[in-house]
């Protein structure tokens, strides 16, 4: 009777314990890019900047991995390098540091512990912070948000509230990872972040009346439109546009992208070895 009980118990548990939930720790090293109102093309690779991060992963089974990560990258763009003379004449620019915390699910197409590699797709949720700045004509750093360059918080523009510097994003993308050994895994991925703000670059809607904007100080007017600083490229310095003139486009939110290499170290797991000498998941007791 005791033997039959053990057989029944193991038969019931077998489907649940074929794969253990193994932990990995690792890092990310790559590049960051931006897509928004100051990029004439979808992504301007000339403004590629470095990015790095840390992550913790847990294998739920051979096809599903959950991970939590912390990433840091830089994004930037400038009208001065656009081909359109209208954009060059606008003469805006920005740069920002992106800090991101994320929770992501990876869907693996293959059993990496059997095949030694697998392509994968991923998606999840992230919280990130940004802080758009620019440089003045002397090279000094200027913080853009506090200047309210599009009339944020003016009573005459009640729909223009100040944007938050901490926002949610939806990360998604694809990659491939390869086992270097039982413990180490190397990967490459491209991860796109859909945000819900159009102000990564401090540009979104239309110009506001400069006399009203001057309530925040002359500096707000100076950095809302910088066409008067244009020099060269066959352009002449411009004048501040009329109220309601298009400054950016609020039809689409801004995006940022993290791409690069991942390296992880497996700190959990055990069990028998499969093909290629790689260790399969196994959390079941042996009898």
From TrEMBL:
Domain of life according to the entry: Bacteria
Name of the featured protein: Outer membrane beta-barrel protein
Domain DUF6089: 7-207
InterPro entries xref list: DUF6089 (IPR045743), OMP/PagP_B-barrel (IPR011250)
């Amino acid at each position: 009777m005791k033997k039959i009980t053990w057989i029944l118990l193991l038969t019931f548990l077998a489907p649940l314990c074929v794969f253990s939930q193994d932990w990995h720790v690792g890092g990310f090293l790559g590049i960051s890019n931006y897509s928004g109102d100051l990029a004439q093309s979808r992504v301007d690779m000339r403004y590629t900047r470095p990015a790095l991060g840390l992550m913790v992963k847990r294998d739920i089974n051979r096809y599903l991995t959950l991970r939590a990560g912390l990433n840091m990258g830089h994004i930037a763009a400038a009208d001065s390098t656009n081909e359109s003379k209208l954009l060059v004449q606008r003469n805006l620019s920005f740069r920002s540091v992106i800090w991101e915390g994320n929770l992501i699910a990876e869907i693996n197409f293959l059993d990496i512990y059997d095949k030694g590699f697998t392509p994968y797709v991923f998606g999840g949720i992230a919280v990130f912070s940004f802080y758009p700045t620019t440089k003045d004509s002397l090279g000094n750093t200027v913080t853009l948000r506090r200047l309210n360059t599009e009339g944020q918080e003016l009573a005459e523009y009640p729909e223009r509230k100040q944007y938050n510097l901490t926002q949610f994003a939806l990360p998604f993308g694809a990659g491939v990872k390869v086992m270097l050994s039982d413990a180490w895994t190397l990967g490459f991925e491209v991860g796109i972040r859909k945000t819900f703000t159009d102000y990564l670059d401090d540009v979104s809607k239309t110009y506001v009346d400069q006399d009203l904007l001057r309530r925040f100080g002359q500096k707000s007017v100076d950095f809302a439109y910088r066409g008067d600083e244009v020099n060269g490229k066959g352009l002449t310095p411009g004048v501040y546009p009329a109220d309601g003139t298009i400054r950016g486009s609020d039809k689409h939110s801004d995006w940022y992208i993290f791409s690069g290499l991942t390296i992880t170290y497996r700190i959990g797991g055990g069990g028998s070895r499969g093909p290629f000498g790689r260790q399969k998941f196994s959390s079941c007791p042996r009898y």
